[in-house]
Amino acid sequence: MSRFQEFSVRPADPFHPHSRRQRALTGILFCVFALGLLGSAFFRTQILRNSEFLLRADDNRFDVVPIAAPRGTVFDRNGKIVAETVTGYALQVEPGPADSVRARVSAVAGLLRLDTATIEAAVRASRTSRGKPVTVAPLLTFEQVSKLEERNGSIHGLVLQPYPIRRYPAGPAVAHVVGYVLEINDRELQSKAFEGYRQGQHIGKTGIERQYEASLGGTMGAQYVEVDARGRVLGRFAPTVSDMPEPGEDVKLTLDLDLQRYAHQVFPKGMRGAVVAMVPGTGEILAMYSAPTYDPNLFVGGVSGTDWALLNNDPARPLLNRALAGIYPPGSTWKLATAIAGVERGAITPGYVMPIACVGGMAYAGRYSRCWKPEGHGPQDLPRAIANSCNVYFYQLGIRLGLENLTSAGTRLGFSRATGIDLPGERVGTFPSGREWYVNRFGWRPPPSEVMNLAIGQGPNSQTPLRMAQFFSALAGNGVARRPHMRMGSDAPVETDLRVSGETLGSLWQGMAAVIEEGGTAHAAELRRFKLYGKTGTAQNSADPKKHHAWFTGFAGPRGGRPEVVIAVIVEFGESGSGTAAPLAAHIAEYYLNKKHGFRNPELVPESIAARVSR
User: Fold this and answer.
1) Which CATH architecture has domain 274-296+327-614?
2) Parallel, antiparallel, or unpaired for β 81-93 and 134-137?
3) 328 has which bridge partners?
4) Which residues contact 55 (CB under 8 A, 6 or more apart)?
């Protein structure tokens, strides 16, 4: 056997110096590689991605407590406050064991009139609050805050937390105009309209608060607090490192707050309806009142379940803004639109006397239709027919026009579209666009006598009080009216153009003046200092055929001068436009004109009393 063969089969010696050196070198290389990996990871973490991981650490260490932004103030046209932000106080309890929380809240339960359910709700909330204070009473009165401050030294674990709240000085008088604010809900948070809003933020839900949320709402701030791994608050940072909230912008309305409050004061108690007052032709809303109403201050700090149920289950529907969303047959107030259509289409002239004199009714196409006055009105021209509200005259005018012409004229005048006012919730009235409209809507073609119904404001014709006020605003404003609006300074386009001559307008005014002053249907509503023009209406009511809705629409101003206020009033189940709606409209118009021209007015009921009466 050779030496080579002997060497190749010799077993390796693990303790040979060469073997130990080889293993040591392998270990060193592995350690260098591992340290290199760790070093590169540390370099990447500490140097290259330092900002990212520092931000993550801060996110775990800090929590953000939102700071509500004060909403902008809402003013009326004269600078009076319609809605403002004031400081409110909530009582909060510091977290802790259930027995401690219960004892802390129970110590002030008698003072704040807290029931057992409220105390136990605070205990349950503290278990999931992750170390943050729990609100026990969201809105304290001034008296309650004063008493708690007196006992501040003896009450531990309770905190008075100030925060901005909304206040509506005029209360129920402005509810449907200004609306109310509540906490944003999940559906709204997902909406593009509220992009950037946070859970817990309060937003406008209705009225001006909703329409101008982007201006009034402001931008929420934030305070940073240090928390432990379980989210429990360890400390709060100074305000200098917090994002301060940006207050909302102020909004000035065209509203006359005194007139709005007066409408609330004089509207028949216990009755339903609406009032709209406007500046002729300009579209500026002076008053918009809906009855019954509610107190928007109920929603401050969150409306209680009891109050919310009462408002929603009330058959009178106090949350409904009848001025915008109440749909009623316009009755005889619509006869002015028929008159305009007749003159515009050349069917009559203002001095034209119909061939059939009113004897209490007339027959046409196999149907006998009555006038409201059984003995009739005799022969008459257009101004006198307006003053008497003679059905027979307008039956004939509708027949002369024809259904297609009458529906076309009514559509052009805006009775089948919204006015476009800058308030949410406006409904569109019902008005036929032609014979095919009847087929599509009811499945039958209208008989020839259908035009008689439409000519006197009955049939498939229902309008909002705002739309009727807008129509009369054009009548008072030289035949043209801009789009209704609530915000002062809005650049409103022309919304209604009657396209009638000054001569025709003069004849219509003559008839509306005779309604008040020459033994017409509203002679009891004549004003002493000012001149009132108008038209009464008694509209059929499907809910109770024996109690009609009462209408009055018109305008008023100094004698010998231009109209300065347009007024539309609807009183549900008021039965008589001349007996119920006209006197109410006259009082409201007179109040505005007295104020504008420096005459003495009735005293306004204090807001606190008005709120109690409304509720």
Assistant:
1) 3-Layer(aba) Sandwich (3.40)
2) antiparallel
3) 463
4) none
pLDDT band at residue 125 under the 50/70/90 scheme: confident
Evaluate whether 552 touches 576 at the Cβ level (below 8 Å): no
Q: Smallest Cα–Cα separation from 568: which of 319, 322, 339, 390?
A: 322
Which pLDDT score, from 0 to 100, does residue 361 have?
93
How confident is residue 110, by pLDDT bands cut at 50, 70 and 90? confident
Q: Are 350 and 382 in contact (CB under 8 A)?
A: yes
pLDDT tens digits along 380-434: 999 999 999 999 999 999 999 999 999 999 999 999 999 999 999 999 999 999 8
- Residues carrying CATH 3.40.710.10, the chain: 274-296+327-614
Whether pLDDT at 612 is above 50: no
Rounded distance between C-alpha atoms, residue 209 and residue 205, angstroms: 7
* 134-137 vs 285-291, strand pairing mode: unpaired
pLDDT band at 56 (very low <50, low <70, confident <90, very high): low
Q: Which residues are CB-contacts of 34 (< 8 A; sequence separation ≥ 6)?
A: none
- Dihedrals φ, ψ of 70, to 5°? -65, 130
The C-alpha torsion from 545 through 323 and 395 to 510, rounded to 10°, is 130
The whole-angstrom separation of Cα 352 and Cα 310 is 55
Provide the H-helix boundaries in 97-252. Answer: 98-106, 109-112, 116-127, 142-150, 175-178, 186-189, 207-211, 213-216
SS3 576: coil
pLDDT of residue 128: 76
Percent helix, percent strand, percent coil in the chain, to nearest 5: 40, 20, 40
Residues 6+ apart with CB under 8 A from 288: 176, 177, 255, 260, 274, 275, 276, 277, 321, 323, 324, 466, 486
More confident residue, 609 or 305: 305
List, in sequence order, every beta strand (DSSP E) within 498-572.
530-539, 549-558, 565-571
The residue that leads in pLDDT, 30 or 312, is: 312
Distance from C-alpha of 485 to C-alpha of 510, rounded to nearest angstrom? 29
Residue 555, φ and ψ in degrees, nearest 5: -155, 165
Q: Are 219 and 249 in contact (CB under 8 A)?
A: no
Collapse the DSSP code of 136 into the 3-class scheme (helix H, G, I; strand E, B; otherwise coil) and give the result: strand
Is the separation of the CB atoms in 263 and 290 below 8 Å?
no
Residue pair 61/226 in contact by the 8 Å Cβ criterion: yes
In the CATH scheme, what is the homologous superfamily, with its name and number, of domain 64-252? Penicillin-binding protein 2a (Domain 2) (3.90.1310.10)
96: left (phi over 0), alpha (psi -120 to 50) or beta: left
Range(s) for CATH 3.90.1310.10 in the chain?
A: 64-252
Q: Position of tokens 């008497």?
A: 388
Average pLDDT, the chain: 87
* 421 closest CA partner among 592, 230, 224, 212: 212
Rounded to whole angstroms, what are the CA distances from 236 to 17, 55, 97, 232, 296? 66, 18, 22, 12, 35
pTM: 0.84
Q: What pLDDT score was predicted for residue 615?
A: 40
What is the DSSP-derived secondary structure letter of residue 171? Answer: G
Sequence-ordered list of residues with C-beta below 8 angstroms from that of 173, at least 6 positions apart, any chain:
260, 261, 263, 264, 265, 289, 293, 607, 610
